[in-house]
Amino acid sequence: MAGAREIRSKIKSVQSTRKVTSALEMVSASKIKKAQDKMLASRPYARGIRQISGHLAHANPEYKHPFMLKRDPAKRVGYVIISTDRGLCGGLNTNEFKKAVGHMRDWQARGAEIDVVTIGLKAAVFFKSTDVNLLGNISGLGDNPELGDIIGVVKIMLDRYRDAELDRLYLVYNDFINTMVQKPIVDQLLPLVPVEDENIRDQWDYIYEPEPEVVLDYVLIRYIESLVYQGVLENLASEHAARMVAMKSASDNAKELIKELQLVYNKARQAAITQEISEIVSGAAAV
Amino acid sequence: MASTIQCKIVSAEQEIFSGEVSMLIASGVMGELGIAPRHAPLMTLLKPGEVRVQFPDNREEDYYVSGGILEVQPYLISVLADTAIRAEDIDEAAAIKAKEEAERLLQTKDKEYDLAKVEAELAKALAQLQALARLKKKLKR
């Protein structure tokens, strides 16, 4: 019966793994909805701030904010990379990092140096072992990230851009398309791509308090932060969706395996019983 | 006739208030502001403090903002509120914290958090599961 016992313990361990995976699946399924709600809730602010920065840039065409200056050729390129804190979400992070690294190689081929700040533990662990400069990290944002959480890492990059230590800034995250599809995206943050808004026609002359330049500076920082924050939310929804799918397939695999192991176990048990009976019978015949 | 104007207070995380108001009172960086309907278009920065909205029936509601932008358009007042207290030194502290976090990560060699370790074990178990499933399929053929 040694074989049967081994199989049974294997079944036990697969069963407990399956319990974990199906629990994770259910947790993620419920969190997707919440993450999507947060995405929706953050849109009015993002839209408002985009409109305002569009108005401002439009109303003051002669004033060039440092964030709008394009410096060529780019000698240093920065990335804000958003990842998950935890694994077990399929190829979500791997695909994203692959895309980011591909983008970086293009710049390195043109002789640019790469600076990186990361949001999320996985990106930090990955990029610290590559040949890029990891300048900042924030992790442990959890399921309720706030804009306040990302101010620090974004500021590191904005300050460098302002001081001309950085000539481009990109944002990398996973775009949540639907539960089955998440797409890694590399977006340009700086220099600012001019905001083309359809509502730009109905313009009015604002009274500015204080001067437009000060307001513009204040608004642009928030504009970039809100873009990064939206990336964080997209990535969060992607994380839960990817984890749900990964855990679902793991649970299905485990179920299949248990079924087959059970069959093997039954056969082994049957064989053992048959053998025992034949031993008894042949023993009795000998007597 | 009580005239009103559409008003919206939103933060990056959520919509805080939306509705018709007869007056909005906020503290701008240049001083207290009361915005009534038909106010001239205005854009100003807000100080941390209360934003008070008054309704036509004289009710009032208070919201606390930690700064933000107040924009007055002919038919809409919108407040883009900050939820985190912002100041140059506080932002600076956040940046320094993020830098330190990165340095700490760069120094720790392969020591991860306990959580990561547990997850690695679980990932290993899953990989074994898959390998076993593949093996099973091969044996069947």
Structure characteristics:
heterodimer, A: 287 residues, alpha/beta, 5-stranded mixed beta sheet, 14% strand, elongated, B: 141 residues, alpha+beta, 7-stranded mixed beta sheet, 2 helices, 7 strands, 33% helix
Outline the structure in words.
The complex is a heterodimer of chains A (287) and B (141). Chain A is of the alpha/beta class and 287 residues long. In chain A, 61% of the residues lie in helices and 14% in strands. Chain A has five helices and six strands, in the order H-E-H-E-H-E-H-E-E-E-H. Chain A has helices at 2-59, 92-109, 121-128, 147-162, 212-286, and strands spanning 76-82, 113-119, 133-138, 168-176, 182-190, 207-209. A five-stranded mixed sheet of chain A has the order 3-2-1-4-5, sandwiched between helices. In chain A, strand 4 (168-176) and strand 5 (182-190) form a beta hairpin. In chain A, helix 1 (2-59) packs antiparallel against helix 5 and helix 4 packs across helix 5. The model of chain A has no long low-confidence stretch (mean pLDDT 89). Chain B has 141 residues and is α+β, with helices and mostly antiparallel strands. In chain B, strands 2-1-7-6-5-3-4 form a seven-stranded mixed sheet, with no helix packed on it. Chain B has helices at 88-107, 114-140, and strands spanning 5-11, 15-21, 23-28, 31-35, 42-54, 60-73, 76-81. Helix content of chain B is 33%, strand content 41%. The longest helix of chain B has 27 residues, at 114-140. The chains are: A alpha/beta (287), B alpha+beta (141). The interface between A and B is large, with 60 and 54 residues. Strand 6 (207-209) of chain A pairs parallel with strand 5 of chain B, so a sheet runs across the interface.
